[in-house]
Design brief:
heterodimer, A: alpha/beta, five-stranded parallel beta sheet, five-stranded mixed beta sheet, 10 helices, elongated, B: alpha/beta, 5 strands
């Protein structure tokens, strides 16, 4: 059963409060306040109050004045005025000044109140859903813009490069020069391929559902490490792994792998060529229902003013190796889905450490 | 009049192609390539070009990490005028983005916009134009 709707009722007559509570407490969660300070206190303590019923005629401040006051500080609850007034002008005034959703004539009947609650609740839900949707849509549009931009550069760029290469191939007679160009064409195509794979990852993270299973970090690392061993050897990078998992851990394997793969590939990609002692250290520990993952490299580091932006879509803080601008954005999104956190610590020319914490689901 | 070229593009293949095409049109041309815009700028900042009998054509890509084409233009236009007039900047990009193209209008130092891919004809046209301007 869904939770009861939380309703606050304010009236200076305790009999009314008592009657209201008695009538509706079974179906709703009723809070009653005898004066405005008490009402404000309730609003502070219960941000999940969905609607506020308030009597118009109270000593000190009228219901309309009260609503006018809370309208900006507590904008979410729906405001309903209880009034014995029959004067249309004052009701219009109440609606305009207090921005109330509706009013209920006093003395009220149970049916009046229930219909007011139902109507306001529907309004509240529609409103809050709309707000969530608007935020989602704005984000989606923003990303779509970035995508359109990136498609013109990151896809069209390599393609026009390849086309250009094919064009001049007709003029090249020297075999070595041709080989050099073929090599460059190959890396350009590989980059394009990585881009498309990352774009697919992006989509699966955003839209795909979580598949929760028992996670064995040793098994996962064994599966993904092979692809880095060759590059570790070729680049002369020491690859150190340490895993301590003494308890069960549950999470989404696909997203965990994506996070690890992105952090690892960055750690190898952005090594400092001048450093004779290159290394990548991975340290994974699982305790108290939380996995803590450190990926530490001896790479080129990230400039302080870029750190805030590295998790942004299509942001690239570096020249050294060509990235797609997807990697860390995908990591961040995967972590959002897994309820995890990421921290970065980086020193220029010394290296970067990413710390990821993920709770067991 | 002597001409030399500076190619600024983060893609190695693009640099290779542009260099090769210029060579095709002008086998003896002096060409330097940069995959990173800031050292190119530092190089220019350092020396007063001999612009009496010499013109350097720059081919500048727009979408590059860290310092993109726009940021390069921004910095270039802050250089002393004596240095600036030794160079002709030509934007060479695959962009279809209207915002990019509109933004280019802001930079007085741009000589022309060339759409990728570059070919021999486009280089010849560029040179022809440079030569007629020099006269």
């Amino acid at each position: 059963m869904p939770e009861k709707i939380k309703i606050l009722y304010i009236d200076d007559e305790s009999d009314n409060l008592f009657g209201f509570k008695a009538s509706f407490r079974v179906d709703y969660h009723i809070l009653t306040a005898i004066n405005i300070p008490q009402a404000i206190e309730y609003l502070d303590q219960h941000p999940d109050i969905r609607m506020v019923f308030c009597d118009q005629r109270m000593p000190g401040k009228s219901g309309v004045e009260f609503f006018e006051e809370i309208r900006s500080s507590y904008p979410l609850p729906i405001r309903i005025l209880l009034t014995a007034y029959t004067d249309v002008e004052s009701i219009i005034d109440a609606i305009n000044r207090g921005n109330i959703f509706r009013y209920v004539r006093k003395p009220w009947t149970e049916a009046d109140i229930i219909s007011a609650i139902d109507e306001s609740y529907r309004f509240y839900m529609t409103n809050s859903m709309l707000e969530v949707k608007v935020v989602e849509l704005e984000k989606a549009y923003d990303e779509l813009n970035k995508f359109a931009y990136s498609v013109s550069h990151d896809i069209r760029g390599p393609l026009s490069g390849i086309l250009g290469a094919i064009n001049i191939a007709r003029e090249i007679d020297d075999v070595d020069e041709m080989k050099e160009m073929l090599f460059l064409m190959e890396s350009s195509l590989k980059k394009l391929d990585t881009y498309i794979i990352n774009m697919h990852d992006y989509y699966s993270i955003q839209r795909g559902e979580l598949k929760i299973s028992k996670i064995d970090f040793t098994k996962i690392i064994n599966e993904i490490k092979t692809s880095y061993l060759t590059s570790a050897e070729a680049k002369g990078v020491a690859f150190n792994l340490e895993i301590k998992q003494g308890e069960h851990f549950r999470s989404d394997e696909l997203r965990l792998k994506l996070i690890l793969n992105n952090l690892l590939s960055n750690a190898f990609k952005y090594q400092n060529q001048k450093n004779p002692d290159k290394s990548v250290d991975v340290n994974i520990g699982v305790e108290h229902n939380t996995a803590t993952i450190y990926v530490k490299d001896t790479g080129i580091g990230i400039l302080g003013n870029h750190i805030g932006e590295i998790f942004n879509l299509f942001y690239r803080a570096n020249y050294q190796e060509v990235g797609s601008g997807f990697g860390l954005y995908n990591v961040k999104n995967a972590l959002v889905k897994l309820n995890g956190q990421i921290e970065v610590n980086s020193v220029m020319d010394k290296g970067t450490t990413f710390k990821v914490t993920i709770p067991s689901i | 009049m002597n001409y030399s070229f500076i190619v600024i593009d983060d893609g190695e293949l693009d640099c290779f192609i542009v260099k090769r095409i210029i060579k095709l049109a002008f086998p003896n041309a002096e060409i330097s390539t940069f995959t990173d815009a800031s050292p190119a700028l530092e190089n220019m900042r350092g020396k007063l070009p001999d612009f009496d009998n010499h013109c350097t054509l720059i081919l500048l890509d727009l979408n590059m990490p860290v310092m993109n084409g726009f940021q390069f233009l921004e910095e270039f236009e802050k250089l002393p005028f004596d240095i600036q007039k030794g160079y002709k900047i030509n934007v060479l990009s695959s962009t279809k983005n209207q915002t990019d193209i509109n933004q280019l209008a802001k930079y007085k130092s741009i000589n022309s916009f060339i759409e990728k891919p570059l070919n021999k004809e486009k280089v010849l046209l560029l040179m022809e134009e440079a030569q007629s301007q020099a006269k």
